[in-house]
Amino acid sequence: MDARDALDFVREHGVVLASAKGPVPSLAQAIAGEPIKGSWWAHPQGKRIFDLLQHVSADPDVAVCRLVDGKLTLVHRRLWPALARLAAEIDPSRLARIDQQHTARGHHVNVETAFADWLPPDAAAAGRALPREAALAALGSTFVTNPGRA
Questions:
Q1: Domain range spanning residue 22?
Q2: Could you give the angle at the alpha carbon of 124 between the alpha carbons of 119 and 127, nearest 5°?
Q3: Which of 26, 28, 63, 120 falls 20 to 30 Å from 54 in CA-CA distance?
């Protein structure tokens, strides 16, 4: 899998976990081509997984948040209207965009941006026009069966 394949994977599935196991596919496992036991950092393809996760996370059509079970989740732009439609029913912390920044000392810090501040106006408008049931179906009922506030 190369960078284009990784982006295609996120686009196709719409919602994927960055590396965790859960009710939606994991990009790290897709990159590895197999289930990962333990930490993906220790996997023989750990550097490649890291590089591709960084590439996909930086793409303007992918939002990184904690939508699925509070785990790092990648959501493709095509589903942002569905998020907008259901935003009032989902804990705001699950919709905050997470950007990892590197400090001068070499540490990583997560900078969170509130959903209303990162959602483009066109996605917000499309969300207002989307029926609730259609938004739930688009996101997938496997993890949004009750998107109530956590």
A1: 3-139
A2: 130
A3: 120
